[in-house]
Amino acid sequence: MDVRKKYDTTFEVGRMINSLSHQLKRQMCILEEESGLTNMQSLVLHYIAFQTVERNLYQKDVEKAFQIRRSTATGILQFLEKEGYIYRESVDRDARLKKIVPTEKTVELHGHIISNIRHMERILQEGVPEEDLEVCVRVLEQMSANLAGNENDRGKETTK
User: Fold this and answer.
1) Is residue 4 left, alpha or beta, with left meaning phi > 0 and alpha meaning psi from -120 to 50?
2) pLDDT of amino acid 112
3) Fewest CB atoms within 10 A around its CB: which of 18, 23, 85, 93?
4) In whole angstroms, how far apart are CA 122 and each of 1, 31, 79, 117, 127?
5) Ranges of the chain whose pLDDT falls below 50
């Protein structure tokens, strides 16, 4: 096993994650060309289709699930609505709140999206022992929590 020292530039976790993210996006773009959706739009659409089976879904849920800003979620949802994949429905208890509802177009495409996600997961996990995947997931979740905590701390500093 290659043991890297912390001063070695190849041991920059953020750079490694960013590089892996770009590789994944390039691969997903190849698979998603026929749908006309970006990787992120496909992932959000999959999330919407899956989650709305069991519960009402709102923009805040999308923002939280993907750790994206409101403006980013708004842009994605507006595009999906414009293209006929979703519509937003007012909620009786709060007129400002809009429930996200998938259309028949989404239901038809959902199987294709799931197939592509499973294909990418097989490629990503190939040759990686189950126990290593479990450690990887825990580490990535901790790193995400660290960054979220840092964002919250920075937000508190700017409001002082």
Assistant:
1) beta
2) 79
3) 93
4) 23, 14, 29, 9, 10
5) 1
